[in-house]
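Annotators were shown the component list below and the corresponding predicted structure, then asked to write short factual statements about the assembly.
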Amino acid sequence: MTEDIRGFAGVDPRTGRDVERIGAETSPADLDDLCARAAVAARELAGLARAGRARLLRSMARSLEERRADLVAVADRETALGEQRLNGELTRTCYQLEVFAEVAEDGAYLEATIDHAGETPMGPRPDLRRMLVPLGPVAVFGASNFPFAFSVPGGDTASALSAGCPVIAKVHEAHPATSVLSHEALVAGARAAGVTPDVINLVWGREAGVGLVGHPAVQAVGFTGSLGAGRTLFDVASSRPSPIPFYGELGALNTLVVCPEAAASRGEEIAAGLAASFTLGVGQFCTKPGMALLPTGAHGEAIRRSLAEHVGALPTGFMLSERTADAYRRGVETLRGMDGVRTLAGGKETGEGGGWTGTPLLLHADAGAVTGALLEECFGPVLVTVEYTSEEHLLRLLETFGPALTGTVHADAADGDLSARLLAQLSGTVGRVVWNGFPTGVAVAWGMHHGGPYPATTSALHTSVGTTAIRRWLRPISLQNVPQDLLPDELRDAPAASTGLVRRVDGVLSHSE
Amino acid sequence: MTEDIRGFAGVDPRTGRDVERIGAETSPADLDDLCARAAVAARELAGLARAGRARLLRSMARSLEERRADLVAVADRETALGEQRLNGELTRTCYQLEVFAEVAEDGAYLEATIDHAGETPMGPRPDLRRMLVPLGPVAVFGASNFPFAFSVPGGDTASALSAGCPVIAKVHEAHPATSVLSHEALVAGARAAGVTPDVINLVWGREAGVGLVGHPAVQAVGFTGSLGAGRTLFDVASSRPSPIPFYGELGALNTLVVCPEAAASRGEEIAAGLAASFTLGVGQFCTKPGMALLPTGAHGEAIRRSLAEHVGALPTGFMLSERTADAYRRGVETLRGMDGVRTLAGGKETGEGGGWTGTPLLLHADAGAVTGALLEECFGPVLVTVEYTSEEHLLRLLETFGPALTGTVHADAADGDLSARLLAQLSGTVGRVVWNGFPTGVAVAWGMHHGGPYPATTSALHTSVGTTAIRRWLRPISLQNVPQDLLPDELRDAPAASTGLVRRVDGVLSHSE
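Structure shown to annotators:
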């Protein structure tokens, strides 16, 4: 841990040494002040029409883009993720802001609904108009493994601002300098769009983070991180005098199944893809496949052998922080110490060491040994293979795994009915089913769901990636018999600025004229 | 309290005497069994296509209709709500089932989304298809004041079944015989539709209710009732090893504002409507207006005088249960004992008494005295009037009231800018703003929102009335690169049974062909 009362260090994972000290724990008085300013900003942001919020988001994206070189350099020094990955992640971050500008302009997220007064089987009904409105100030807790895309300028921030909710972001101790630079970029973007900089603010330190979740001005929380920290903050949010929604994305085991015929026809290709997927970014993805169920016999054995070759050839990498590297080391020790678990490849340090390293590791577990730690996520580049002996055995095994962000199936047409059975079973427990692919890589799209039942997330109803992430920051209101001139534009019979908006009018979905 | 270890009494509020003993506390073993059966029923219900669930709901509505005379007679004996009101409520209950059959057929609630594989600024994107799927078994806790529409056969049950979620309903001790009869009707409806009766089951007793909320098989809870009981169960749901959403509708103060010009032009009409609204059903509505803000001067004074005349002429009524009547008596005592509060009319028992009576009461409070109990709901036929001296004073007063299910404004065009300011302020804190009307009466419609921020409900994002109530029982999944023949019909490029379904395909909302 690098937190102390004097401030927060930016640390280089490649050396483990502090680079600089920036920021200090936010005091309770400062937190109150930030929250009060966010409450004022909420009124300004809600008052901007959707077009105004779209302009704000695009201005922020431009501002990040202008600071690309600095942002990537600082983030690389703090996370060791590498310039290529970080450039890609920053591109994604800007793209997310652009997408949520489009979501605001599209406006269907408002669920605008008009029921004109009329007769029903229940008697006369008044004029009723419903739409979604912003919840108010939102707290965002970013992730160590995505210093841009799931942190200060990330998807939670983009979707909250799009909805009309100001953001107070807790600085992640694994990338404080990146957070400060990102914040400066977003503030510059807000100023360029003529919007108050208080739409985005930062708080520092663990206590201030807990205080933020408990603060009466805060109306919802977005969180990406570990199950332990997420559950602690969920409990704070739920036990407030006024409970608020807590959207925690907590990671998962992410089981991958290879069906017999797929193993026979393209085992080599699956092994190569799987090895790349579970070691991508030194295994530091919440969608990392952590468990592979392989068929018994020669084809499953060939996949394991191929996986072992790939893993044996991979170098040790640098992990995000001391805490991450320690947790990986301890997690791997636990797995290797379990009865019925043996090492197939990897796990030996390569290179010079010195920083916070993590080494790819391939384990195999007897099917009967799959309990305890083998059912939980181990964050880092480790994959466990298990052998199934029949379709029934495979489906029983799958039942022992809890909910997850993803479940992956490799199946050929020749695998027959097994495909449908696997799809049905996985659909009941995971947020996204991946077919003949790999779960790492979460597209920002209308059709994306990045979530799942607990403990994958703390709210099975919502996603943290994709356009529908905006729904987390909105609540409905109905306006009954309110005169036309007082209605929000989107709910008027003849809207002025909302041409083409999809609304449900007297029960029928249509585009406004 | 009529609960004891021997069973549950059906009691007559007009006499306070037990009529019969029916039902016994559900044992933990029986609860396990019910939950296991609900989990099996969940698979059957999810497997019914939307058309099958629509048939189920309509069959249940018919079955209730066939038992109308018995249902109304038993409910009247248990609740003293009167045959006219209960006939109307049963009509509404059947209508709700019909409406949720239409919602299932409409299918837009699925939010079906198709993103074909393609290029994006982020590189190639896989084929992604998203829709909502049922959460699984749901617990329903009905309300004392609506033995049909918000109880065993009510809106929570209708929306959950429409979504594909089986229901386990906790029997309300204020109407056990009504619950049993309603359950029999729903089961008969299920059988007639060829669906397992385990889509709806009952549990009895407080401990079994708590056990139900904590049961691993239960995936969400719908609750209508008091803040105290609701918060207790919310805490149980949130502190489970696997937390689940708890949708509690907890009632509210429901402030009503009369603007100066409206008071001048139609004070008499407003007074008559308000007196009828707050005493409707002996004031036992969660949308009962409990606080009226009137302008200072002659027009406000005339409204108070008129209200007092109406209230003075109203008889004592019978309340739903001993607990309700006791709570009303205690609540009224507290209000009348506060400094700055005086009685304008009512509060004296009329009629023979003997049962659980509640007497309409009109109070006036000095604006400076509006604190504590005056800011909280008092369930029953009591209204407090407060005088405001200026627009600024009115808006400051409004700020002191917490979130609520509704806020009502009576305003004329001549009230000018005040209307917009009131609408903006109320939109920030209530679920439904009623204009020149009264909040009692909650239409079942696409445009209805019956909810609001805590403590009006435990989930500001959702409604318990209206078609969007279905969203509470659903979670999204994404299917990535899944072959066409394995996809649910609604997500296929060319659906077979989903003609006309509204979907978002490659970003554009359209009807499927």
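Statements collected:
1. Chain B touches chain A through 77 residues (CB under 8 Å).
2. Chain B has two domains: 25-117+131-250+461-473, 255-435.
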